[in-house]
Amino acid sequence: MNWPLARFLALWTAGVGAVVAAVYTPAAPPSPNAWVADSPLRTSGCPAIDVQLAAWQRSLHLADWSIGVDCEAVPRGRDILGATLADPKSRSARIVVRAGLSRGWQQLVLVHELLHVGAAAGTWPAPAGFDEEEEYVDAMAYLVYDDRVREVRQSMLERVRRAATSATSTTSWDVARAFDGAGRGTAAGTARN
Length: 193
Known about the structure:
The protein is mainly alpha-helical. It contains 6 helices and 3 strands. It has a 3-stranded mixed β-sheet, with helices on one face. Helix 3 packs across helix 4 and helix 4 packs across helix 5. The radius of gyration is 27 Å and the shape is elongated. The N and C termini lie far apart (97 Å).
């Protein structure tokens, strides 16, 4: 056996392993404030949050709850992405989602907070082995989101299409009544407009 070559290969492998371990050591994640400031896909406010809430509320079997959602720059003055206040007796909850998140993160935070509501309702109780409800909800939010996001987005699109179709058919009917074939307003149409 060629001992100098074996020694060289062993030291080279150990050296490369040390460099790789030093370079790829995960750093502590930034705070939500830092993450939001650096995100290139930020939105202003929380666009379509009510539509998302309705769709996810149905998907997570929380339709019998009265849930409201607010959008704040820094929820409750803390460095967090969202917060929930749930009252199981009255079956009502208030969710706060951080403003300025991308739509994907906004939905994920919403799902996370809805799972807190589900845990309070007993729909999604934390199983034995989880010290904190937060650990369970955090793990479940990713699983539920990945599992149901396509289905929920499809239901949201169908509702928007139905609303657009009914609005378009009403609008085109009004336009057809208001204008004659030459594009001039009829007496009834001009009087109404």
